[in-house]
């Protein structure tokens, strides 16, 4: 009993919100805030990346983020210690923990399991983000840089609201209509013609798979998208077709910094997380190093600018990656060469290895591995490859492939999974899972006056720090109430009707009437039209969100004034 009580007390000390280590009143506001998120980065990833960089470049023993390491962050969902990207980044942006899959949206309460008490009456409420607050309160510019597709969880958390992270049809138009100044990343196929037309009509330049166009663009407002969905891993990237995260960050800062009111920029190293899910050490480490180079760009700008703060923090851990694993005999005595030489030879991710062997004759497999991995397959490994169900060039007919008689962990799953396990087996790295993990994540920060967060922060406290940097501390709830009020409250004195969606995946339009006027409210946009024919257009400074779970539109209180 005593041991249980002691454990509960320790747990309470760790996870319950405490007084911020730096009081918001003591944090000096800055003009610009850059938040950099290496998605799914556990601390061992940082260690392995640093060692690999030092091994391959002896004059670079330190990462760009090293001088700015200042603490750790406890990151979790509203009802679970291990979170996914949607609720974890959402908490950084809104100050509220949320549920798996929720994008900057108040969670449905789970009283038996909620880490903090959650209000059932607020379920599904869209929550104003730090980015949106900067736009609304200070007229700051806003930008997003990432290597996933643009409506993916982390970028979406900054500028959209949904209780289903996979509903890109809800999220993408919000990101477009939130009037972000600069967006650079993946997702060409996800920018609909309707959304593209909105951007073009509002002064944006749009580039699709046009790296030279992006580089030569001189305008302030730009969307530059590459690849149908996510961009390539950095190690697999064709530099003539896809820019590095470092370059994307530099271009975004250059454009955003022209705004006299300042800017908010979120940069995500998106695919560290994807490689961690795949247990692919080459992908994890090289994408993190690409992210660190982007951090170098942001930190260099901040040091020279004198009005910019940079906060660098993962949203959660992933994969339980370790430097040292039991199959490496006496791994604690191995040299740098023994630990990192093999990793330094990898020139492709496991995913790209799978594509390459599937696009080449089986006779070229050994040459591919010699060139891109620095070893040849053993006879057993070759037979395991031939027996992969999705190896299209296998000399073994599909109906005759089997893992019977093959031992070890290499012989299950997809071809990409086989490649991940094979490449990892040649190293002394290990993984505990292919999913997210719940350990604290690192925190690094730069502030021109030195008021940086130090120690162990909760994800809620980190939001408080970001709000204080922008001078919007204590204002997010007020902004949420003003810009995301329920339509039943805003239009309680008027007649409201919902016209059905044109298809089963669509959303209704809200029509509000009085004796003389009619307002037509379109979900997931910032556009309202007046009149039965929708002739007069009103453009808002925030988006309208429709939630089907409670059949509610969330919209600005000020809209009622247009009906008077």
Q: Could you characterize what this model shows?
A:
This protein has 564 residues and is of the alpha/beta class. The strands form five sheets. Strands 5-6-4-3-7-1-8-13-2-14 form a ten-stranded mixed beta sheet, sandwiched between helices. The protein has a five-stranded antiparallel beta sheet with strand order 16-17-18-19-20, with no helix packed on it. Helix 2 (43-56) packs across helix 11. The longest helix is centred in the middle third of the chain and has 25 residues, at 281-305. Mean pLDDT is 93; it is low at 1-20.
C-alpha-based Rg, rounded: 25 Å
Helix content: 25-40%
Which residues sit in consecutive blocks of at least 5 with pLDDT less than 50? Answer: 1-20
Q: What number is the mean pLDDT?
A: 93
Overall, the morphology is globular
Adjacency order of strands in the biggest sheet: 5-6-4-3-7-1-8-13-2-14
β-strand percent reads 15-25%
Number of helices: 19
Distance between the termini: 65 Å
Number of strands: 22
Assign the structural class, choosing from mainly alpha, mainly beta, alpha/beta, alpha+beta, or little secondary structure. alpha/beta
Major beta sheet summary: 10 strands, mixed
What's this model, at a glance?
Helix content is 34%, strand content 17%. With 564 residues, it is of the alpha/beta class.
Question: How is this fold's topology laid out?
Answer:
Layout: H1 2-15, E1 32-38, H2 43-56, E2 69-74, H3 85-94, H4 130-138, E3 141-149, H5 153-159, H6 168-177, E4 182-186, H7 193-201, E5 205-208, H8 211-216, E6 222-225, H9 245-256, E7 263-269, H10 271-277, H11 281-305, E8 308-312, E9 317-318, E10 322-323, H12 336-345, H13 350-358, H14 365-373, H15 379-386, H16 415-425, E11 429-430, E12 436-437, E13 441-446, E14 455-458, H17 459-470, H18 476-483, E15 485-486, H19 487-490, E16 495-499, E17 509-513, E18 518-521, E19 527-530, E20 536-539, E21 545-547, E22 552-555
Parallel strand pairs: 1-7, 1-8, 2-14, 3-4, 3-7, 4-6, 5-6
Antiparallel strand pairs: 2-13, 8-13, 9-12, 10-11, 15-22, 16-17, 17-18, 18-19, 19-20, 21-22
Helix pairs in contact: 2-11, 2-12, 3-5, 3-17, 6-7, 9-11, 10-11, 13-16
């Amino acid at each position: 009993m005593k041991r249980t009580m002691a454990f509960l007390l320790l747990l309470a000390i760790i996870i319950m919100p405490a007084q911020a280590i730096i009081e918001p009143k003591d944090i000096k506001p800055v003009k610009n805030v850059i938040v950099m998120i290496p998605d799914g980065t556990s601390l061992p990833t940082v260690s392995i990346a640093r060692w690999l960089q030092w091994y391959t470049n002896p004059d670079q023993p330190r990462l760009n983020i090293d001088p700015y390491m200042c603490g750790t962050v406890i990151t979790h969902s509203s009802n679970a210690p291990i979170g996914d990207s949607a609720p974890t980044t959402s908490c950084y942006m809104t100050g509220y923990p949320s549920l798996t899959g929720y994008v900057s949206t108040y969670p449905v309460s789970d009283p038996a399991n909620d880490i903090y008490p959650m209000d059932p009456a607020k379920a599904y409420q869209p929550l104003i983000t730090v980015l949106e607050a900067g736009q609304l309160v200070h007229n700051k510019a806003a930008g997003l840089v990432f290597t996933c597709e643009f409506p993916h969880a982390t970028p979406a958390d900054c500028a959209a609201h949904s209780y289903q992270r996979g509903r890109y049809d809800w999220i993408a138009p919000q990101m477009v209509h939130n009037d972000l100044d600069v967006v650079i990343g993946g997702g060409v196929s996800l920018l609909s013609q309707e959304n593209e037309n909105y951007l073009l009509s509002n002064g944006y330049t749009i580039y699709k798979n046009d790296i030279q166009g992006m580089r030569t663009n001189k305008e302030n407002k730009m969307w530059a998208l590459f690849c149908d969905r996510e961009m390539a891993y950095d190690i697999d990237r064709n530099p003539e077709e896809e820019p590095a995260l470092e370059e994307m960050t530099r271009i975004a800062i250059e454009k955003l910094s022209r705004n006299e009111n300042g800017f908010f920029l979120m940069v995500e190293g998106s695919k560290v997380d994807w490689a961690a899910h795949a247990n692919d050490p080459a992908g994890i480490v090289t994408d993190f190093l690409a992210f660190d180079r982007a951090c170098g760009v942001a930190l260099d700008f901040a040091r020279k600018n004198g009005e910019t703060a940079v906060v660098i923090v993962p949203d959660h851990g992933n994969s339980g990656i370790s430097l040292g694993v039991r199959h490496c005999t006496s791994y604690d005595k191995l040299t740098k060469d023994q630990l990192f030489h093999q990793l330094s030879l990898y020139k492709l991710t496991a995913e790209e290895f799978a594509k390459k062997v599937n696009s080449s004759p089986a006779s070229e497999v050994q040459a591919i591995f010699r060139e891109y991995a620095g070893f040849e397959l053993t006879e057993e490994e070759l037979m395991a490859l031939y027996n992969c169900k999705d190896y299209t060039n296998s000399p073994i007919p599909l109906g005759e492939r089997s893992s019977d008689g093959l031992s070890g962990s290499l012989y299950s799953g997809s071809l990409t999974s086989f490649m991940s396990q094979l490449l990892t087996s040649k190293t002394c790295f290990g993984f505990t899972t292919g999913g997210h993990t719940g350990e604290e994540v690192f925190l690094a920060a730069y502030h021109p006056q030195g008021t940086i967060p130090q120690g162990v922060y909760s994800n809620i406290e980190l939001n408080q720090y970001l709000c204080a940097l922008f001078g919007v501390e204590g204002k997010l709830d007020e902004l949420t109430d003003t810009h995301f009020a329920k339509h039943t409250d805003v239009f309680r004195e008027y007649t409201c009707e919902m016209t059905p969606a044109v298809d089963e995946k669509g959303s209704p339009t809200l029509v509000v009437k009085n004796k003389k006027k009619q307002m037509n409210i379109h979900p997931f946009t910032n556009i309202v039209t007046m009149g039965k024919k929708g002739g007069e257009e009103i453009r808002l400074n925030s988006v309208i969100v429709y939630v089907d779970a409670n059949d509610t539109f969330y919209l600005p209180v000020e809209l009622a004034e247009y009906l008077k």
